[in-house]
């Protein structure tokens, strides 16, 4: 799609759970000098806020309390990029000023987050917060390698709802067994693996969450018509990052030659 204005180059990355979205998005942002927003972290924060108040997100009667929490919670993200292209950027997540980066990644939060994200008013509140953050980052973005600022956002509805005019939309997929193996390994490595948690359970939970995300009424998980699908099952992280970075360069070049020929 040719770009009509000078707004930052936008990359939207969507896909099912543990398909590699946030790792890839962060590394793409680092390579290009773009900003990064992890929208899943917002839904995880609302879920954590509800659970810590003793609210059970699986009960539909609690939806309005959870929606109020989504509105009133203050959510912040801080991504620290590295100068070395081989080291992974880290994102710290703050809920009402408290660092909850680790607390929002537990299996308990993962188990409940899709029910929370299916509540319409919760999505409206999160969408507003994400748009506000996107607008702030657009004005403070680093200059990209190609002299342009940009933004990478990942989630479930970025290409369809949050950034419907994104310059590049990627839909990341991977076999659910492979995704479960990667998620289990990640939990073990970070010390967040709960006692007795096995591969079957992780795979079933990812599949259950994907089903909820795909079938909900409000902004379901789906590939945007103009998204490029990338299957990461047999790719390395570097391979998938490189494929996206090359596509950004290709589109930037095409957009600047179409502007200069006008
Ligand atoms: N191509 C890949 N090969 C091996 N591991 C990968 C690959 N892509 C992602 N991962 C790992 O899979 C796990 C899940 O990736 P993550 O980026 O958190 O996914 P998502 O944001 O889609 O949930 C992470 O531990 C990440 O390092
Ligand atoms: N844009 C988004 C991002 C996440 N979500 C919800 O938030 C949950 C957690 O997102 P996440 O990106 O942190 O999940 P993982 O793929 O990392 O497990 C998803 O399962 C969705 O239910 C959403 O509905 N819309």
TrEMBL record:
UniProt GO BP: nucleobase-containing small molecule interconversion
| EC number, as in UniProt | 2.7.4.25
Alphabetically, the GO molecular function entries are: ATP binding; dCMP kinase activity
- Where do the record's region annotations for Disordered lie? 211-230
Q: Name one Pfam family in it.
A: Cytidylate_kin
The chain positions of domain Cytidylate kinase read: 11-248
Instruction: List the catalysed reactions.
Output: dCMP + ATP = dCDP + ADP; CMP + ATP = CDP + ADP
- According to the UniProt record, what class of enzyme is this? transferase
Q: Name one GO cellular component term.
A: cytosol
Amino acid composition bias (Basic and acidic residues), ranges on this chain: 211-226
Q: Which UniProt keywords apply?
A: ATP-binding, Kinase, Nucleotide-binding, Transferase
Q: Does Nuclease count among this protein's keywords?
A: no
Similarity comment: Belongs to the cytidylate kinase family. Type 1 subfamily.
**The name this protein goes by in its record:** (d)CMP kinase
Species of provenance: Linnemannia elongata AG-77
């Amino acid at each position: 799609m040719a770009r009509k204005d000078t707004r930052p180059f936008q990359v939207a990355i969507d896909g099912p759970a543990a398909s590699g979205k946030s790792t890839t998005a962060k590394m793409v942002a680092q390579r290009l000098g773009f900003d990064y927003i992890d929208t899943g972290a917002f839904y995880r924060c609302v879920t954590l806020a509800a659970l810590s108040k003793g609210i059970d997100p699986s009960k539909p009667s609690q939806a309005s309390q959870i929606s109020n929490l989504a509105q009133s919670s203050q959510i912040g993200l801080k991504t620290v990029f590295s100068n070395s292209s081989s080291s992974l950027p880290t994102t710290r997540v703050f809920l009402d000023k408290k660092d909850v980066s680790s607390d929002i990644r537990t299996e308990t939060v993962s188990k409940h987050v899709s029910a929370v994200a299916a509540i319409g008013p919760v999505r409206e509140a999160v969408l507003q917060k994400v748009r506000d953050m996107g607008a702030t980052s657009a004005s403070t973005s680093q200059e990209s390698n190609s002299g342009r600022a940009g933004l990478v956002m990942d989630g479930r509805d970025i290409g369809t709802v949050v950034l419907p005019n994104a310059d590049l939309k990627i839909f990341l997929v991977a076999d659910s067994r492979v995704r479960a193996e990667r998620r289990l390994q990640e939990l073990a490595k970070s010390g967040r693996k709960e006692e007795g948690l096995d591969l079957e359970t992780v795979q079933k939970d990812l599949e259950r969450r994907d089903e909820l995300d795909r079938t909900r009424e409000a902004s379901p998980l789906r590939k945007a018509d103009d998204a490029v699908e990338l299957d990461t099952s047999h790719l390395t992280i570097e391979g998938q990052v490189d494929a996206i970075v090359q596509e950004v360069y290709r589109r930037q070049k095409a957009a600047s030659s179409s502007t200069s020929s006008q």
